[in-house]
């Protein structure tokens, strides 16, 4: 029955009004249903949660199961309660690598790219303790000589072998900065003595070196000063045959002499070479047995106080290495 302003409602309390009884029963039913609905809804939510069939679960698949202890990473297994387990540093949580390998530095490119230079630090600091070994005779083609020698020292005891290794390492750094591949015939502490002069020559030959420089310092009487470059003489005897390297070795020596004098401020030797700083010899196994362009450089006289002051200076040794390097670049790089 519809109630509006045109039809006034029956008087209350009338037992004869059937609509009144129907309205009372309907109101009671509505109240009952309203009270029951929350309980049904709560039951449905609980069922969906326990069965994993809710809308989110149906979209993402079955609910994930806890990982077994064996399937966890060491960082996850060892994590303390309440802490955040770490994943392996080499993988991401998805199993893919989380970091990429560091790129390999590109080789330095310069005028000596593709060139190989062998640097031979004269003598060895251990030779003084191994005189029997270094005194053994080896064949250098023109004759036989000692395997190696001790080298000289300054009056204060600074060894030639210390000097030659220091300059050689500086020289290697300078050459590598120009793109060269550099091979040292020996390294500090790598061997107790030597190597023999025959092995030093062989290292340069087997490396197919574009240039070989043997670094030395002289040990003559005081008053004799300056540097000089030793060049191979033309020899052919036994295993020695320098015919193919005499010309290029002289060019290498001339290039080094000019750059060494300019960079260090040192003058050519005043006691040999006629002021040219160039000397030719046929009695050095390192030159006789070489098949690659090769020279020796005597950077100064360790027995002269003025020269010794330079040779013992790190700053001067750096200049010496740079002067030699510049000569090699001029020879190989043009």
UniProtKB/TrEMBL annotation:
Key words of the record: Hydrolase
Q: Which domain of life is it from?
A: Bacteria
UniProt domain MurNAc-LAA: residue ranges? 201-329
Q: Write out the biased-composition intervals (Low complexity).
A: 81-111
Q: Where is this region: Disordered?
A: 1-23, 52-116
Name of a matching Pfam family: Amidase_3
Q: What SMART domains does its record include? A: Ami_3 (SM00646)
Q: What name has this protein been given in UniProt?
A: N-acetylmuramoyl-L-alanine amidase
Q: Which organism is it from?
A: Streptomyces amritsarensis
